[in-house]
Each structure stands twice: as structure tokens, then as C-alpha cells.
Amino acid sequence: MIKEAKYSSLILGIMAICTADAAAQQTVKIDSNYANSYYQQRVEYFDKMSIPKNAIVFLGNSITERGEWQEILSDSPYPIINRGVGGDNSFGILARMDRILAAKPRAIFLMDGINDLFRKLPNEVSVNNYRRIIRLIKLKSPKTKIYIESTLPINEEMTKEPYTKERNKLVPLLNEKIKAMAVEEQVTYINICPIFQDEAGKLRKDITPDGVHLKASAYIDWVNYLKSEKYL
Fold this sequence. Notes:
The protein is of the alpha/beta class and 232 residues long. Helix content is 47%, strand content 10%.
């Protein structure tokens, strides 16, 4: 009877471990989707718009897409190209790198991350996608200067969507990991958060219409900062 009890306990222990493993696997399920209808529409547009040689490319999600980079940088001696896609995440950016790199751009300014947080992607997944993007640039366009910009904070007092809640407190940790990765990969990391955040680390209310995106005038401050630090 004692042996049977021990055997039963062993079986129960194994079952508990298997159940825990299965639960863990469900917990870390990754949402890597990106190719929604808007993404496809933007990519089709990009496919018909060739990137000039020696261009400076601003790459990212809706925050990048909404920037009037060409107008603000109208005095640039190099073509300015906007490759932002609203709602995009690190998987979607990685998927559209080949077309960008075929043009051998002079520089790429990458700013992403918030949509990864909205999707609850683990930081390790996001950072690994950043690393893959960087290494792809180095492989296919080795002369391109790579600038990785910090993920911007949000202001949850102004947001309405449930997926934005409890996300801002995660931004600093993601940025720390992105910065550490940039150091490892020997590329330039630019912390743009101080330009736009308040003392509490939230996106300033005076520069955002919805708690996530920037007002048009805020992009002028962004560009001026990049110029002051000699990145542009």
C-alpha cells in the first residue's frame, strides 16, 4: 500500500508539472500578427514609390507615419523618406526591411515598441526583433548609419482603449533593454523621451491629442533635437 501511495503521488506530481508547463506555454503565446488591411495598403503604396539613393529613412509605426519629416527637413541635402505604418509592430517592420535596404539608404532612424507593449509581447521578443533588424541592415546595407530611438511614453489619463492601460510603466524597462542591445550591436541609441515626457514619465498633455500620438508641432522639436545632437 505504501508503494502504491508513493506511485500515485509520483503520478500526481508529474501531472501537476505537465499541467503547469501547458499553462506556461499558453501564457507566453506570442501575437506576431501585423499584416492587416492598412499595413498591406501602406506596403502596396511603398512598393510603387522607390526610395532615392542616399536617403534618410524614418522607420516605425503611426508615430513615425504622422511626422511631416520631408517638410521639416526641407533644407536637408539628402532625400527624406517616411516609412511609418500605423499600428505596426516589430514583426511588421522586420518583414518590410528588404525593400528599404535595396535602396542602400544613408541612414535609418528606427522608433518602435509601443505597439509591441500594447500586444503584450515579451521584451525579449521585441528586443530580438530589433536585433534582427539591425543585423539585416548591417548585412544588406553595411554603409547605412543606424539610429535606434527610444520608445515614447504614453499618457493613460488621455487614452480610451483598454489595451493601453497599465502599459506606460513598462516603457522604461523596454527602453533599458533596447539601449543595452544597441550597445551590444554597436549602433547609436537616442533617448528622445526627455523631450516629450513630464516629471512623472508620462507623455506631456500639451503635445498629444490622444495620449499616444504627437501633435504636428512636436515633430519640429524632435527634429531640432536630432540636429542639435548632430544626428542630422
